[in-house]
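Hey, can you fold this one?
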Amino acid sequence: MNQTDLITTIAITSGETKKTVENVLKTTADVIGCELHEGGEVTLPGIGKLCTQAKAARTGRNPKTGEAITIAARTVPVFRAAKALKDAVNS
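Sure. Predicted structure:
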């Protein structure tokens, strides 16, 4: 399901306009991004939890030349699925 399909399905199910649903989804993504940027976490009831995880710097290899390179430390988003979502997928 792509973004257009998601917006259409939510609009039909909720009775809202596609434009309203699109604005809500964009705002939700912005709010989640800001919260994760600040080091917080976001819980989506029945879906899961979004948080961040620090990755340490490490040494890697350039696959083309085999030369050793340093991969910088970074923070990555992590998703942990809720039990309800896991149960829905496995039923």
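The chain has a mean pLDDT of 95. Let me know if you want another pass with a different chain boundary.
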